[in-house]
Each structure stands twice: as C-alpha cells, then as structure tokens.
Amino acid sequence: MKISPIALRHKLHQNPEISFHEFKTTELIIESVKNLPNSNNIKIHTPYKTGLIVEYKAGNGNFHLFRADIDALPIKEENEVSFKSRNSYMHACGHDVHTSILYSFLQYVLKNKIKKNILFLFQPAEESGGGAMEFYNTGIFKNYKIQDAFALHVTDEYPFGTIASTNGVLFASSLEVDIDFHGINSHVAFPQKGKNAFNALRLFLDAVDKLPKDISKPLVFGAGKISAGEIRNILPGYARLEGTMRGLSSKELLIFFSQIEIILNGIEKITGVKIRIEKGAHYPEVIINSNLFGKLSKSLSKVYNFIDCGYKMTGEDFGFFSQKFPSFMFWLGTSNGAKYGLHNPKFLPNDKIIEVGRSIYSEILNSLS
Question: Known catalytic residue: 69?
C-alpha cells in the first residue's frame, strides 16, 4: 500500500529509534519505497545493519547523491499531537522530516521519470557514532561515480521556507570527549585521606576557561554532562565529564585536544588523581563547494528566500561526505513564530515543510548538469 510523505513522517515520529538501532525505521522506509509507483526502476541496497541506499539509474553517467538522516534522540517528547512519540525517544532534530522530504523527492523522480542518475541515501546514526563514515566504509559507494552530494537540515531559527547556506564551512567540525577522574573516596571530615576527583574535574574546567582565545579562529568546548559522588558526606573518588569540542577545522580541534591533554597531565601530577581522556565521535566540518554555492544560490534565490548565513558551530556528520564529494547543504527554515531550537522536546516542524523541501531538491536537480 502506497504511503504519503506526511503519513510516513507521522509513523517515523511515533516510533523513533536512536543511532545504530534504526531497524524498524529501515524496514518502514524499505516497505514504503517498494510500494511507490514505478518502483521497478530502482534498486534498494542495505550494505549496513541499518539505513539504505535507493539507486535510480536513468542511463550512463555520474550520480547525484541526496542524503537524509533517520535516527532520533534520547529525549522525551513534550508535544501533544496525534502522532506523538510512543516511547522515550524523539525526533527532536527533525530527522523524520528529512527522511520524509527525501522520500517525497524519490516519489517525484519516479513519477516524472527524471533523466539523471541519483542515489537516495537514508543514513543511520547521524546523532552519535558517525553513521556517515560507517556507511561509507561498507564500500557501497565504490560502485558509483558520484558527481556531487546534497543534504538539508530543518531549523526554527529561520522563517518558514527560508534557505540558509554559505560558501566554505557551513557547520563546524565536532569532537566528543569523555574524561574520567579516578581518585580515592574519603569522609568529608577527613579529606586528607582521599583524593577528590571532583576537585580535579573542577580544576580542569577552570583551566580550560583560562586558555587564551584566538578570536579569528572560533573554538568551543562544552561540558554537557558531569557526574560525581554517591552520598553527601563522602568526597567523591570518581568523577566523569562528557563534553564536545567545536571548531572550523578538524586540524584546529586536534591541536586543542592536545592542549587539553597537557592540562590534564598537570592536574594529575598536582592532585594525584588518575585521569583518562578518550575521543568519541569526530565529525569533520561541512564544506560547501564554491561552484555549487555560486550556481545554486543564484537559481534558488529566484524562487525562495535565500540568505548567506555564514558558519555555524553546529556539528553534522554530512561533513564526512563533504570531504569526499563536492557538496551543498543548507538550513531549511520552519518557524511560523515559535522558536524552540533543535534537540528541544517541543521542536515540531509543520508537515507543510515536507513539500517545500521536496520542491527545493527538485529545483536543485533541475539546476545540475
């Protein structure tokens, strides 16, 4: 049975799955794609445990890659809508919308029998773990000569239907870091008998804040989660920090990571607390190809409100593809007044943005040679 893009969005939104666990999501997309008219003109590939590629080949020549991410976040939804999430996860970053836009675009291509070769990538694990790299490393892309790659990201930062992009770095490189502080518990009355792990963590945060900043090279360090201690009268012998770094290049992040290691080594010597730092997911910066930006900003501006937004410190693992192929990515505004921001339990783009996103992809395709 054929399913509409809006109906698909609602099903995805009701049944969100987190990174690397998008099994039912993948099944739903495959089933929906197979039931599209003219689906005999496509091939479905599942080289990874979740996610899929839909191959549409109209003849010899290069392929255009269009990508949507399919994973959700461990956030409890606070919207009261008929298609509210049925579990403790949520599409709070709009990936249900991205997926439905790409599905609608596939529907458009099949219906109009477009004479271009296109790969439709429904990618897993954008939010955590680097799904783009994992999917790429399956080797599936070696079977195609990919000319360019495209993606979008919805946001209520901009008015409904607005396109925002830039020439060069659009989204920052990001690197997750986990730091464990191993000390010795002690009673608050006898602090000299222990090694306070939380104090070591606090010293680290103070030291990072005092690092000299080069305003010409924006760099962000954020400690999103800190845990320490068990009961009120015992000084903690263990503490943990989970954070992220953002910069305009992977090279700058790795230099900053080395500075953090030096700081931690010094704190370890001063406090006697053993410290271990580990890298998590590392997303390279999203680079917008200058030729594509020049061509598409001109053509899209004729139909849509197009703005040059400059760089953002947001991380996006489409950056991995932008290192491999000439790429164009853009923000798609969804705001009709309310602005909750991404990863918010009330973030909920209107269904109407699906058709807008589809039409923009169609316009992009028409502008390509």
Answer: yes
Residue with tokens 């897993």: 124
Contact 317, 133 (CB under 8 A): yes
| Total number of domains in the chain | 2
Catalytic residue among 69, 71, 252, 285: 69
220 beta partners: 246
Kindly state whether residues 118 and 195 are assigned to the same domain.
no
Residues 271 and 243 in one domain: yes
Q: Is 55 a catalytic residue?
A: no
Cα angle: 206, vertex 212, 214; to 5 degrees = 135
What's the CA gap between 91 and 298, in Å, rounded?
A: 32
pLDDT at residue 101, rounded to an integer: 98
Residues 316 and 277 in one domain: no
Cβ neighbour number for residue 6 with a 10 Å cutoff = 15
Contact 363, 300 (CB under 8 A): yes
Residue 219, domain extent: 173-282
Band of pLDDT at residue 337, cut at 50, 70 and 90: very high
Element (H, E) at 139: none
Question: Which of the following is catalytic: 71, 127, 176, 285?
Answer: 127
- CA angle (330, 336, 339) in 5-degree steps: 75
Tell whether 183 and 132 lie within a shared domain: no
Question: pTM for the full model?
Answer: 0.93
Judge if 63 and 144 occupy the same domain: yes
What six digits make up the tokens of 80?
């009261």
The pLDDT of residue 1: 73
Are 213 and 71 in a shared domain?
no
Q: What share of the chain is helix, strand, coil (3-state, %, to 5)?
A: 35, 30, 35
Span 206-252, pLDDT tens digits: 999 998 877 778 899 999 999 999 999 999 999 999 999 999 999 99
**Same domain membership, residue 252 and residue 212:** yes
